[in-house]
From TrEMBL:
Protein name from the UniProt record: Glycoside hydrolase family 5 domain-containing protein
InterPro entries in alphabetical order: GH, Glyco_hydro_5
Segment forming the signal sequence: 1-21
Pfam families to which the protein is assigned, alphabetical: Cellulase
GO biological process: polysaccharide catabolic process
Alphabetic keyword roster: Glycosidase, Hydrolase, Signal
Superkingdom of origin organism: Eukaryota
GO molecular function terms attached to this record: hydrolase activity, hydrolyzing O-glycosyl compounds
Amino acid sequence: MLQINLSLLCISLFFINEVSSYLEARGDGLYYGGQKVFLSGANYAWHNYGQDFGDGHYFSESQAFYERWLDEIASAGGNSVRFWLHVEGYVTPKFDANGYVISGDNQGTLKEELKTFLDAARQRNIFVVPVLWNGAYLTNQNAINLVWDESKLQSYIDNALKPLVSAVSNHPALAAWEIVNEPEGSIRVGVSNSNPCFDTTPISNSGAGWTGLSIPIENWLKFINRQIDAIRSVDPAMLATQGAWSERSQTNVCADCHNYFSDDCLIAAGGRPGGTIDFYQMHTYSWQSQYSPYSPLKVL
């Protein structure tokens, strides 16, 4: 498994060639068409929170903004972008009255909207990482229920995720799928467990769990594992990743750290050997103008 910080500052330029290909994680690097590349770009998350894609919103409201931002990234020498897709699930996917997912969106335009954005990114030689969900702030009970209820999660996988992955599979601008942004915001902290993967005492004083949703971390790990496995069942060569809020939850480098997103932890929770991440992606924030000594900006 490869450890990468998508916010690093160096730039390695490349060009998306005309032959369909995949970004690959090999050894300690990323490769495209046999050439080693370094992802450097921007996280612009959203224009209109949770409403940029689905039901025609991209075409009617967001496209101009997203393409302008792509131009700005390209002109600055960047080669990648990360954005949020479902976010909290208010527009996509479409839920029925019982909280089961029945389609990607109400009007059936989501696939074409995403493909249009990927085409625009390809024209500018930019890789795209769509983030499916947001665990850092989650208020939609239908989306919350996907983390608690396996049958509802499976309805999302079967009726929204797999069709969407199939629609854009093998797109040369698609770098990786990221399952959820910062699920640590919604975990239950201070829980002792004989399995270190589910023991959140190491990060109990780190600030995790800020949403107050108190979801067991094993639920989130299953949520991630099952979706990655589903993506691979449709598009086996596609990369998958996970956006951790800190090095504290994605490394074992300090006393109050634990790598909850290791292969072992994801498989222990979800039971799917194919549901593991290809490269680590961790976020880092300063506190009182200081970065942790274990921050990716301080540890190379």
